[in-house]
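Ticket #4471: structure export looks truncated?
Reporter: QA, pipeline team
Priority: medium

Steps to reproduce: submit the single chain below to the structure queue and open the exported record.
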Amino acid sequence: MKKYIHDFQIIANRRINTEYFVLSLANEKKLPEIKPGQFVQVRVDNAPNTFLRRPISVYDVNYEKNILYLLIQVVGEGTRTLSELKNGEKLNLIYPLGNSFSLPDSEKALLIGGGVGVAPLMFLGRWLTEQKKEPVFLLGFRNSELQVDIDRFRKLGEVYISTDDGGAGEKGLVTQHPVLHNDTLDISMVYACGPDVMMKAVALWAEKKNISCEASLENTMACGFGACLCCAQETVQGILLVCTDGPVFNTKELIWQI
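Actual output as written to the record:
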């Protein structure tokens, strides 16, 4: 798939809560096909200590309005600088990068996200509905204040919530949610994105249930196109690069220290 380097214009910077915000980006050029699970490499200008681009999952795409959406968590100087961007300012992207999620066999699929790992699930959920599939979301956050766009997810499918403190949904980790023990949940695919420990637990659960599982890995990426080798991942096929061979992998291919 062809890659592009374009300057996008900020048309909205929507603050969701103290940690998360969504950038709405417009481009004069027509957006190319972007697949769920792919990401962009963002150049962070005016941040003296941020030398490398930042990999950000595609949160959503509106082809009719030619708008790309990025959900970002403030974790350091680079993302803090991005959170302060104003309407009309420019943001340089390399895109679309990486591979994508695959289509499930059955009508229903379970999408599990933790924290900022919910980012690729919005676009994935929208794509599934367009393919006449039914997404079911299981989303985990540290507390109720850090929930992200729950009403928007509910427009796409059924939503279950877990919070560490029990402030919303079920108390505990997403992997402890009762929905995972619901034998009537007829699914053929699980998609996961979030902390490694969460994805490993989801992969184990899926393996025991004999359900196919795909995970979007969040390894450190400096370049996004396979030159720096810092995102290497051990797999049954040998060492692969998350930025080019992933970020989406079938969890049976991954060699994880569980």
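Status: closed, not a bug. The export was complete when the record was re-opened. Leaving a note from the reviewer for reference: The first helix runs from residue 77 to 83.
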